[in-house]
Give the backbone structure.
Amino acid sequence: MPLHDAPEIKRGSRKQPPEKSDPERGQANDINGSKPALKNPAPTAPHSLSVLDNIAIMLDVDGTLLDIAPRPQEVFVPKNLRETLQRLRGQLDGAVAFVSGRPLEDIDRIFTPLKLPAVGGHGAEIRMPGDGRIKRHTRVVFDPALKAQFYEVAKLGPGIIVEDKDYSIALHYRLAPHLGGKVMDAVAAIYDRAGSHIFEILPGKSVVELKPRGFNKGIGLKYLMRHAPFAGRKPVFIGDDTTDHAAFAVLPDFKGIGYSVGGIVPGASFNFDGPEDVRLWLELLSRGVPVEAR
């Protein structure tokens, strides 16, 4: 399983066959037994990264940590991923968080019983560590007529799915990729009528979303970084699409590191091929395997 160039994960030279995660197992291996590496899309100063460094790990969910499913509710979380995140939380004194477009309630449903600090709804909701209190952005009520327009777009053909996230509305067309252009045009028309000063369009992987302005993942990430256990650490953020641009943009404020998934994203220093590679990399970190960029 290629991850590419840097950072490289240092490991022993003996190759092992693939195994499932096990608490008594030592290091994780990719499907070929070779060490994963990362693409380096731009010249970057050498630096090292390990679980003992003063970092905070911030993770997008869909398309980054989890493989995208045909329908949003069908995503699958491998059991060993929960174990990996739990280990990292212990090693980093709790400084592990989700930064997702999904509402917090949905994130918790997917990862139950694991409940991490999180930025949900593209920054509309922020759950703090410790007492778990939630900071919510002032709700912008979507006009029922506006929502109705999205459901009309879904009638373009079978396979178009409307996802009402409360703070935003999304149209998924993964099951109808041939209709992607028409969906995008229809949402752009809704956006023009609704007012570009009020809303913004967030295109993703076979999905397009309309959300109010005033909050985003970058604002949410900065809020977490001002509070324990994140304050004073360097954020390591991993994201995969346009909805993550705002989070990548604030990383320099904290001397953070950005990793994109499946393609080069502005603000990312390195790139993973896919979510499977992200999960392997996190597992290696959670098991104390040093990781360094070259």
